[in-house]
Design goal:
The protein is mainly α. Helix content is 67%, strand content 0%.
Length: 189
């Protein structure tokens, strides 16, 4: 296991991880904010700008997903939630966080998939960088494609995507010390 020593088994243990992960994603969002606010010179190259924008999108998706992580992602639950979600979009033409929460059997996977795809694209952009291309090739990302839908797996999937996001952001911002910032991530340095 890369992110945790073992998969959390009890509800209390999963909730404890979830609370820590909320802190982690909020901390990274703050670092992303400071990075763009401070007009980092590493954002002068077009592939870096594009990668950063994709990393911010992934961070938003992970931020949203962590609040939905306890979902029952079995097909019966997911299919009924998909139906409810589609009905809400078609009839109301609007989705709120409460709708995301009510349909979390599907929406948590949507946000995790969104983060994963954005990080794949961010990695591709960084591979085009003259300055960071070689480092990006050696980044060792652990993006996911599995469909194991257990609670424990969803939490682990979130963590693996989070670690990959941190790895890519660290390429753009090598001075950032994730060890002090993140409670559980094992970011490759």
């Amino acid at each position: 296991m890369t992110a945790m020593q073992h998969e959390p088994s009890s509800l209390d243990e999963r909730m404890a991880y979830t609370l820590r992960f909320r802190y982690d994603i909020q901390s990274v969002l703050f670092e992303l904010y400071k990075f763009i606010r401070d007009k980092s010179p590493n954002l002068e190259e077009t592939p870096h700008q594009q990668a950063f924008e994709l990393i911010v999108g992934a961070a938003f998706s992970l931020w949203r997903a962590i609040f939905l992580i306890e979902a029952d992602r079995s097909w019966p639950s997911m299919s009924s939630r998909l139906e409810g979600f589609l009905h809400k979009v078609v009839t109301d033409n609007a989705i709120t966080f409460q709708d995301d929460k009510a349909n979390s059997a599907w929406t948590v996977g949507y946000y995790l998939g969104s983060a994963n795809m954005r990080l794949e694209k961010a990695h591709e952009k960084l591979l085009l960088s003259k300055q960071l291309g070689e480092e990006a090739r050696n980044a060792g990302l652990t993006l996911t494609e599995t469909w194991n839908l257990s609670d424990e797996h969803t939490l682990m999937e979130w963590r693996m995507i989070f670690e990959s996001m941190c790895t890519l952001f660290k390429l753009l911002n090598p001075d950032l010390e994730f060890k002090k910032l993140v409670t559980f991530a094992r970011v490759k340095e």
